[in-house]
């Protein structure tokens, strides 16, 4: 039996809440922010559906329509809303007082009104604009939402009808249908839809987006934004979207042509500035394609008086910036700004202290590519046909990747970082010496006896037998890897120091020392000698062959005593970190992905990678991560002329053996 309810007009002020309304225990339902769109709709269109009311204590209690009632009260309180007062009457349906289905009525209205199908909603918005001459602005006002939200729904409502029909029939998912909105042209959408459905009966949103990329470039894409002005100046077609950022530059070939032209211009500008022989451009830098190319690096030069003055100014400013960057309260934006300033200053300092040789400039060039939303320059590249093996040639490091010459020159280390790395290397060497007491004892005794008995210069300058610890300075001593410190501390714990009693006379101490076993004496001498080794990088086989051979014996791999961490990576340029990941570690895809990340994020990635190599690494990548260190720190690294002050970029020196 169907119950009919009598129509009645009721003043808004005579309406009250009904205790049987199923939403009466959910007051948040009626919060102003939750009914804003309903208030806006009623203000423009009026009350489209009557309220269900029941007489209670002389008032009309709202049984169904509580949210509309709340919206009406908001309009009465809003002085800007015209025509809505407490005395204004609205249409209602009166439920008899003896009706026993009160709660059922309220529940039925709240659950039987199924939410509108998403596609219906999209199409309804589209019809309002196409048929009723509505605008996104008027639709937004009607529904109490934002213009951007309306435009988002409109975009889906304007997808090609065949695609919407497929979504209704559940042939494709709603997400797949939405993916077609990536291109505003319905004709392009239809063509892609037909092509993909011929190839595969099941479409995925990802496949659709990838296919649409070949049909144009969105203006919000980094490449689209980069070329748009030139593209439109040449009459390139633009498919306009309701949301400007989704408009598409339809001629993909023209986009690529303009991009390559702009990259070529950037490469040519760098070629002229640096004096290279050639310039080229490629949209994406392909590490595999470039594997056969060599590379040359600038060598150190003596700065003139003006240059030296500027270098001193830069050094002072860098020290100040380093202190500012240690402030843990810095916001990311300020932190990154300081990084950029440091990078710029270090680059300027390098330019003042290094230059390419005329021979290298005559056969090398620069390639510009697009990476991370900007032009990236790859300088000093040598084409395979121009690569010449230079036996013993100092200052030239051209070589195919992974062959012939080591890649020590790839990164030009600032003087301050180079000095600190010397300290870290000396600490690692000290740990190795403490862990090899017998060999170090022999070295110490040989050094002492040879210096006294042999004629001429000392057999090695690396060890100072003067009973004083070597002073080791470092800008961030508390942040460096602690492996060598822990190893030396463990060696110290194992020492027999029973003879070293300050209450004894020196003669008594000496007697106790003489009574120690030979192995214990060796540990003590090794520990003392380890504490007196000098900080340096490589050993010249001719001038310090003793330490060259000794280091290879006791420290064939510095990574046994030292691990790169954030303290090191923080002092590298972002481009260096990406180069290390892509070229040295074989993580080319990760380097491409991280190119758009901040330097801080890349540093965190590298720190985590070296602390515990990821399980997803290949065997080759894992081996590369386990072995990597700044080239001049490794025993099998690059020789360095210790007579030169703080070499910025150690370079190979003919057939001189390489040391850490």
From TrEMBL:
<protein>
    <submittedName>
        <fullName>Putative chromosome-partitioning protein ParB</fullName>
    </submittedName>
</protein>
<dbReference type="GO" id="GO:0007059">
    <property type="term" value="P:chromosome segregation"/>
</dbReference>
<dbReference type="Pfam" id="PF02195">
    <property type="entry name" value="ParB_N"/>
</dbReference>
<dbReference type="Pfam" id="PF17762">
    <property type="entry name" value="HTH_ParB"/>
</dbReference>
<dbReference type="InterPro" id="IPR003115">
    <property type="entry name" value="ParB_N"/>
</dbReference>
<keyword id="KW-0175">Coiled coil</keyword>
<feature type="domain" description="ParB-like N-terminal">
    <location>
        <begin position="8"/>
        <end position="111"/>
    </location>
</feature>
<feature type="region of interest" description="Disordered">
    <location>
        <begin position="640"/>
        <end position="660"/>
    </location>
</feature>
<feature type="region of interest" description="Disordered">
    <location>
        <begin position="386"/>
        <end position="410"/>
    </location>
</feature>
<dbReference type="InterPro" id="IPR036086">
    <property type="entry name" value="ParB/Sulfiredoxin_sf"/>
</dbReference>
<dbReference type="InterPro" id="IPR050336">
    <property type="entry name" value="Chromosome_partition/occlusion"/>
</dbReference>
<dbReference type="GO" id="GO:0005694">
    <property type="term" value="C:chromosome"/>
</dbReference>
<feature type="compositionally biased region" description="Acidic residues">
    <location>
        <begin position="641"/>
        <end position="654"/>
    </location>
</feature>
<feature type="coiled-coil region">
    <location>
        <begin position="304"/>
        <end position="362"/>
    </location>
</feature>
<dbReference type="InterPro" id="IPR041468">
    <property type="entry name" value="HTH_ParB/Spo0J"/>
</dbReference>
